[in-house]
Amino acid sequence: MPELPEVQTVVEDLLRAGVAGRRIARARVHWRRSIAEPSAAAFGRLVRGRSVRSVHRRGKYVVFGLTGGYSLLVHLRMTGQLLSLVDYRPDRHVHAVFDFEGLPIYYRDMRKFGRFTLVDDAVRPTAMAHVGPDVLQVRFAEWLDRIGGRRAPIKALLLDQGIAAGLGNIYVDEALFRAGVHPRTPADALSREELRTILRCSKEVMRLAIRHGGTTYINFANFHGNPGNFRRKLRVYGRTGEPCRRCGTVLERLVVGGRSSHFCPVCQPE
């Protein structure tokens, strides 16, 4: 958390708030390690006065295109939040504050895992080299070439951001349930059509989650502090011990690649 739908929700909120076109009048960093590159002191100096040309998402990154040939990459990781609230009183978890010409945006992060990276657009491809094609945009042939024939469990491969970016633990479990595939199944044991179904289900669950504003499982909140509504749509994730909404079988949990995996033993036979 946050995964693609949550990050897309933040991007859409930023655009609706009119961030694009505004100038960064000031940037205050309260916890220096929130800035991955450059130093915290240089960061404030380099972003000040630059205008926002664009705001978009790349995988799980929020990307601000800035004037002067720079891009600001924001990775929210587990508990990062970008907030803009009327009469907001920052608490000790607010680690950076931006003033977009009178529009304050607060960066809040309880676990302190999120990072800001300011990069020169000339070297930006290097900064994003580890991020594969967006899962919502990737074509089946390209995705099959990256994932087909691999012996690793399909769950682990779907989480690999170098294969296709955006999927995280919640939505991989939901996609595999929809596809009827056990999370521990090796990719090379799946047919071409089964793999096609997995990609289609991955895109379907992502689009549905975006429409519902993402999933609030730990503390995700959108730009205005509101939780996502997709949690009530979850079919397997976080529902261990509860009945499957399709067949009534008790849902189970196992660990695949170090990540908790939730599934139905009947709908997703091993």
Question: Strands, helices and their partners?
Answer:
Layout: H1 4-16, E1 24-29, E2 35-37, H2 40-47, E3 52-58, E4 61-66, E5 70-75, E6 80-83, E7 94-100, E8 103-109, E9 115-120, H3 124-127, H4 140-147, H5 154-158, H6 169-179, H7 192-211, E10 252-256, E11 259-263
Parallel strand pairs: 2-9
Antiparallel strand pairs: 1-7, 3-4, 4-5, 5-9, 6-8, 7-8, 10-11
What is the CATH class designation of the largest domain? Alpha Beta
Oligomer: single chain
Give the proportion of residues in helices: 25-40%
- The number of distinct helices, counting runs of at least 4 residues, comes to 7
Rg from alpha-carbon coordinates: 20 Å
Largest sheet: 5 strands, mixed
Number of separate domains:
2
- Average of per-residue pLDDT values: 89
The structure class reads alpha+beta
In total, how many beta strands?
A: 11
Return the string of H and E elements: HEEHEEEEEEEHHHHHEE
Q: Please name the CATH topology of the largest domain.
A: N-terminal domain of MutM-like DNA repair proteins
Q: Kindly report the name of the CATH homologous superfamily of the largest domain.
A: MutM-like, N-terminal
Question: What share of the residues does DSSP label as strand, in percent?
Answer: 15-25%
CATH architecture of the largest domain: Alpha-Beta Barrel
**Strand order in the sheet with the most strands:** 2-9-5-4-3
Detail the poorly predicted runs: none
Q: CA-to-CA gap between the ends? A: 27 Å
Shape, per Cα inertia axes: globular
